[in-house]
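It is worth pausing here to work through a concrete case rather than discussing structure prediction in the abstract. The textbook approach is simple: state the sequence, then state the predicted structure, then interpret. We follow exactly that order.
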Amino acid sequence: MLIVRATKKLLDHTHPPRVVEGDHDTTLLGPWYATALFWRPRLALLVNERTLLPVLLPLAPARSLPARLPDEIATVLDAHQVPKAFITDELRHMQDCRFATTANRSVVGIMNEFTKLAEIYTDDSAHPNLVTLSLRLATTPCSPLYATNVSPDRELAALVGAAGSGKGVDGVQHSE
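Step two, the predicted structure:
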């Protein structure tokens, strides 16, 4: 199950399926955070809690957002050259997508910073390439990552590398 922790403005706009007691995220990347950007066109910004990886996607149609999230995340993972097996496994765990309110103020702060940077990077472009913009944002140094890999793209590469080496995300060797 994919858990998306969304801001109130996104929850109010999309009315997605909500987390119920006992739901937990089963993806390797873990929960994602999301907010609505009421630009023209309207966008959604997702940020992965573990890696701080940003994903931008069209918000419209808002009601279909939960169903579109897995493919949009997979597209950005593919653009980061994540192995197909990893992406396929993540997609398998994202079949059910539920939403909850935000719980980590640090990630919400990162979303705010990415929003400001995205505004600068788009340079008033009416139709920016959202995958390219997501990739550019992923190179941004983020203070929560200073002790590890500094930027979301490097944090993602380290996590995927650890998963591919048989080590868990905790860095401990696990046998299959």
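Step three, interpretation. The beta strands are 2-6, 32-37, 43-48, 54-58, 97-101. Residues 20 and 98 are 9 Å apart (CA to CA).
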